[in-house]
């Protein structure tokens, strides 16, 4: 599979080896062909585990924050969104424990003008397992996510296939696949569609997931 790019639909089960490096992101306008890419920004991207610990007041659940970064912009022909802004929370590799498959969510937001200042006061990078998304969104005026996707991750040592037999592949051309990180691909939505597998976290548009496999 080296040298190929695998398009994996939202909800596919991955193995931890595919999440070793910082993810890259791309977006395609929902309901259009793959050549119709969004423009604009800036965007905020988060990767989190929605099934974290219960807060001290005992209601709901906190989330585990694996990545938060602002300053993403779109407009490239390949649909990629990129950021030159320092991450608020650098990428921390998901590491599910136990024997059950674990769920991770990628969210994309329009970035408010004062986001960086507000966010830095509300994120403790030393306490990522007590992140409260609802409180954070309210405190930073992020509003609703404009895109989102999710993936499932097998604990280390399991042997589940990283993709189904129906997955399509595309050549990566001149890409050097050594050390290439996975590329998660949320789609911008026209309205919102509830995805039951995400629980009550948000009503999200269904999205594809693209990985570069070394």
From TrEMBL:
<dbReference type="InterPro" id="IPR035810">
    <property type="entry name" value="PEBP_euk"/>
</dbReference>
<dbReference type="InterPro" id="IPR036610">
    <property type="entry name" value="PEBP-like_sf"/>
</dbReference>
<keyword id="KW-0812">Transmembrane</keyword>
<feature type="region of interest" description="Disordered">
    <location>
        <begin position="158"/>
        <end position="177"/>
    </location>
</feature>
<keyword id="KW-0472">Membrane</keyword>
<feature type="transmembrane region" description="Helical">
    <location>
        <begin position="195"/>
        <end position="213"/>
    </location>
</feature>
<protein>
    <recommendedName>
        <fullName>PEBP-like protein</fullName>
    </recommendedName>
</protein>
<keyword id="KW-1133">Transmembrane helix</keyword>
<feature type="compositionally biased region" description="Low complexity">
    <location>
        <begin position="158"/>
        <end position="173"/>
    </location>
</feature>
């Amino acid at each position: 599979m080296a040298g190929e790019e695998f398009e994996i639909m939202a909800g596919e089960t991955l193995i931890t080896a595919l999440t070793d490096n910082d993810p890259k992101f791309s977006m395609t306008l929902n309901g259009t062909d793959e050549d119709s890419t969004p423009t604009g920004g800036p965007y905020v991207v988060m990767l989190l585990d929605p099934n974290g610990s219960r807060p001290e007041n005992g209601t709901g659940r906190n989330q585990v924050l694996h990545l938060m970064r602002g300053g993403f912009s779109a407009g490239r022909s390949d649909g990629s969104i990129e950021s030159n802004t320092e991450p608020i929370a650098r990428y921390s590799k998901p590491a599910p424990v136990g024997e059950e498959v674990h769920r991770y969510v990628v969210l994309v937001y329009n970035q408010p003008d004062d986001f960086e200042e507000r966010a830095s006061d509300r994120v403790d990078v030393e306490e990522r397992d007590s992140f409260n998304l609802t409180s954070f969104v309210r405190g930073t005026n992020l509003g609703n996510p404009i895109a989102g996707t999710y993936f499932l991750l097998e604990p280390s040592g399991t042997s589940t296939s990283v993709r189904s037999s129906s997955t399509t592949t595309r050549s990566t051309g001149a890409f050097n696949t050594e050390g290439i990180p996975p590329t998660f691909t949320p789609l911008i939505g026209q309205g919102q569609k509830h995805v039951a597998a995400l629980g009550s976290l948000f009503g999200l548009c269904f999205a594809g997931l693209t990985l570069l496999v070394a």
